[in-house]
Design goal:
With about 220 residues, the protein is α/β, with parallel strands linked by helices. The chain has a single domain, classed as TIM Barrel, CATH 3.20.20. About 25% of the residues lie in helices and about 25% in strands. The chain has helices spanning about 20-25, 55-65, 85-95, 120-135, 145-155; strands spanning about 1-10, 30-40, 45-50, 70-75, 105-110, 140-145, 165-170, 190, 215-219. The chain has an 8-stranded mixed beta barrel with strand order 1-2-4-5-6-7-8-9, surrounded by 4 helices. α5 links the parallel β6 and β7. α3 packs parallel to α4. It is globular.
């Protein structure tokens, strides 16, 4: 069954005034919410700071009050200074404070600026998935088709098929599903870019802040 949802809710595009009830009234049944990420470089420990998203607790509460399901995600930092155990343990601790990750624990796999993947970071990503799965949670991988293609050049990623795939592929009639998954198997498709969420209660309330993106999912 195909259902409508909200994609990629974080401190960058949700606010205390975000109208989750309006999203629910417009037919949205779920939201993918950022739980953890990394922040500034810590010069004492000589590695990035692992932190919770500032809006995670509030978003999770309001999503539940609106009668929607949550899927919680970790933006995975591929830099070698951070171990899979550090990132996975912090993610599990963060989501368990609100009763768990909801329908799925998701890892966001994408390069950001100069922060990119290599073969070693792909192994750490695999370990993150295994640690979170061993904690008893259903695990999904969120990425875009060309991003997965790039990883496949660096290392064996056949193990990814053991986890759900949430694909970001905007403004196309159907998403391209890269190997090792097969077409039509995606758990969610984020099919719009920014600024398409206004009808669902997501008008940016600060200059430079984007509107949320919309997803379809088979849940």
């Amino acid at each position: 069954m195909t259902i409508l949802g909200i994609g990629d809710a974080s401190e960058y595009d949700t606010f205390p005034t975000t109208e989750w009830n309006k999203a629910a009234s417009m037919g949205c049944k779920f939201a993918i919410v950022r739980a953890t990420t990394t922040g500034a470089w810590n010069y004492t420990t000589q590695k990035p700071t692992v932190r919770a998203d500032a809006m995670f607790n509030q978003n999770t509460l309001k999503i539940a009050q609106a009668g929607m399901d949550s899927l919680s995600y970790c933006w995975f930092d591929p830099r070698p200074q951070l171990t899979a155990m550090e990132q996975a343990t912090f993610f599990v601790e963060t989501v368990e404070k609100v009763g768990g990750p909801g329908k799925m624990a998701v890892v966001d796999v994408e390069k950001t600026g100069m922060i990119v993947y290599n073969a070693a970071s792909i192994l750490r990503l695999r370990a993150w998935c295994e640690i979170v799965a061993q904690a008893g949670y259903k695990v999904g991988i969120y990425s875009y088709p060309s991003g997965i293609d790039e990883l496949a050049i660096m290392a064996d990623i056949s193990w990814m098929k053991d986890y759900q795939f949430l694909v970001a592929h905007w403004d196309v009639t159907a998403p391209r599903i890269p190997l090792p998954w097969h077409p039509g198997c995606q758990a969610a498709w984020q099919y719009t870019a920014y600024a398409k969420g206004a009808p669902y209660g997501f008008n940016p309330s600060a200059p430079g802040k984007p509107g949320l993106r919309i997803c379809l999912a088979v849940m």
